[in-house]
Specification:
This protein is mainly alpha-helical. 76% of the residues lie in helices and 0% in strands.
Length: 393
């Protein structure tokens, strides 16, 4: 909690200060500000709870054990490990949601690197890219999907029927770029890795209880429990276990204040911008055409704005100006806001959570590499996914 703030920390703090100034000066009416805070309160509870849950589960060495098992199954073959990691990240994102992938899977991937004695960056990039690009299949995969499914009146089965081909296209392009930039022989620097031996867990009781808490969290989501309630309940179980077994790990640094500050500021600043020209700008950028050109404009606008202000407010801002009858254009906008935010560190909440985990595990992510490779992926994946959307439509 007392570490020196970094550049991203100052951006988050500045965003919250700007939002507070907008409310204090009346640029954002207090009623609108209250509505925004009320809307994100469950999201803040989810973020805080799920990161505490994941951090305590990591301290219990559950992720180390999972990472060891994955490395052993790969048997030293980088190609097999690549397929395992892609499948794991994609399925977690599709059937849970992208934030769960960032929270629960990122530490597994980062724990795998020292176990298999390989560089952590390929594993980390696999997680963050697929947390975004694999979030198109189901309404629960991404909050934006829930908004879009309601807007176009698609049932979960209908949503899958409409989006499964675009989802395959997005994953295929992501796999190609992951292999070229991070996993091929010239990038990873070795022919094979050495599978580790069996994992030794320091406190099996803590590992068991926190592991059960994670499973209950996942089961709660699948059962239809509100995601913030499932996360808070699971985190409470993990905290209770540490109160019993090891209170020294319950420290203030567990609370992800940076993320909570950022999200709060975001939902004060974006509504203010919408009141003073953002909606008009979105209408000019997206247009009203429901054909191929209109879909590409919507997707490109959604992807670009996601990397400027975050994908959730970008989708909401775009949705308000897309004509209600333009279902293809709306789904193209959804494609841009889901697949496109892989360039900026704040493009999606999943990316923010991922950066938080990399910081906590002391994994260095070269910003130049992150920006350039993400831009290349978005430039190909977004139009490819929109093309698949139109072919199936």
């Amino acid at each position: 909690m007392l570490r020196r703030p970094g550049v991203l920390d100052w951006i988050r703090i500045g965003l919250l200060i700007a939002g507070a100034v907008f409310v204090a000066t009346g640029l954002l009416p207090s009623a609108d500000a209250e509505a925004s805070i009320r809307r994100i309160a469950p999201l803040l509870l989810f973020l805080g709870s799920v990161i505490v849950l994941a951090e305590l589960t990591k301290e219990a060495e559950v992720f180390d054990a999972l990472a060891t098992r994955m490395a052993r199954v790969g048997r030293g073959d980088y190609r097999a490990l690549f397929i395992l990691c892609v499948a794991f990240a994609s399925l977690t994102t599709m059937f849970l949601n992208l934030d769960t992938t960032a929270v629960l899977l990122t530490p597994v991937m980062l724990a795998l690197a020292p176990k298999a004695r390989i560089a952590p960056l390929p594993l980390a990039m696999t997680t963050v890219w697929l947390a975004n690009t694999a979030s198109l299949l189901l309404p629960v995969s991404n909050l934006t999907n829930l908004l879009a499914a309601d807007r176009v009146a698609l049932t979960p089965r209908g949503f899958v029927a409409r989006m499964w081909v675009p989802q395959l296209a997005a994953i295929a392009v992501t796999m190609l770029f992951l292999w070229i930039f991070f996993w091929r022989r010239g990038a990873r620097g070795a022919d094979r890795y050495t599978p580790p031996g069996p994992a030794a867990i320091r406190d099996p009781v803590l590992a068991t209880v926190t592991g059960i808490a994670c499973l209950l969290f996942i089961a709660g989501i699948l059962a239809g429990v509100h995601i913030q309630i499932a996360a808070a309940g699971a985190a409470a179980i993990a905290v209770a276990a540490y109160l019993w077994r090891d209170r020294s790990k319950l420290r203030p640094a567990l609370i992800p204040w940076q993320l909570l500050v950022f999200v709060t500021g975001l939902f004060l600043v974006v509504p203010t911008l919408s009141r003073y020209g953002l909606s008009d700008l979105m209408t000019w950028l997206i247009g009203t055409g429901d054909g191929w050109v209109g879909a590409l404009r919507a997707a490109a606008t959604g992807a670009s704005l996601s990397n400027l202000i975050n994908n959730l407010p970008a989708y909401v801002a775009g949705e308000t100006v897309v004509p209600k009858a333009n279902h293809d254009q709306l789904l193209a906008l959804l494609t841009g806001t889901n697949v496109g935010p892989v360039v900026a560190p704040w493009g999606s909440l999943a990316t923010l959570i991922w950066f938080e985990w990399c910081r906590r595990r002391d994994v260095r992510v070269p910003m130049r590499t992150f920006l350039l490779t993400g831009a290349a992926l978005a430039a190909v994946a977004v139009p490819a996914t929109v093309g698949a959307l139109f072919i199936t439509g």
